[in-house]
Amino acid sequence: MRPLTHPSIEHVTVEGILHALSDPVRATIYAQLACADAANSCSAFLQMEDRCIPKSTLSQHFRALREAGLIRSERRGVEMLNTTRCAEIEQRFPGLLPAILQAHAIQSGQSKPAKRKSAARSRVG
Amino acid sequence: MRPLTHPSIEHVTVEGILHALSDPVRATIYAQLACADAANSCSAFLQMEDRCIPKSTLSQHFRALREAGLIRSERRGVEMLNTTRCAEIEQRFPGLLPAILQAHAIQSGQSKPAKRKSAARSRVG
DNA sequence: TCCATAGTTCGCAACATACGAACTTATGAA
DNA sequence: TTCATAAGTTCGTATGTTGCGAACTATGGA
Asked: Is the CB of A76 under 7 A from strand D?
């Protein structure tokens, strides 16, 4: 079992970030991590939106996010705590992650402003 | 030969956009189209940054961009004119494309601010 | 018509992904 | 220590995706 590897922020690439987040499962995981207060374990995502993800697949997804530089994972006893590297990436690629997260929110309809009197494409931003 | 198909803006997805732009060749093509005044033909990209792209590969890349909703292509005589659908996408996913393009620019070192008085994190990437 | 140019499609090899099975690591109980 | 359990990882394989040369289609001109 090789140890967890995290790229330094210098080695994080735009292509890597986009590719990692172009998968709907990974995008969902990342979005949840991004808006979570505390770190999340992997197994918190075994069931997502009425869908079951196999453990092995989930492991690969976390590795993809980790190797893209999007999250940081550390072993904590028997489980793993995952946190986003938002701040670092924001510094390197300002505005990139917020824009992607917001786009995902818009697409999934989470960003409806609760009241839409004139349907004027009012989004979260 | 099937006719060119363009998804309606409603069917454009974030995942599709991210996946399309996660390829460095496509990202470069898109960036060039985005900052071009006039529409570009496909063959304008047969040679990019000291690298030759086969015609068939280029065709696939353009199809990928088209089907992701990123560009619009129309036959113009013997060639094809490609333009970005920036405005539509900006309306649907505000800020997404500018952020991605800027991130690519930062990564490729194109976005050095011309003056960097304190050498503040000004690395090529 | 024939020819040249600009792109597309086909076919195959190489690479990537999903997932069950088997494995490693950590923790607690006997 | 040994067994059991839980959380993740790695392996093997079936299935998808991608890159590219060869053959094809469509348009315009002589």
From this structure: no
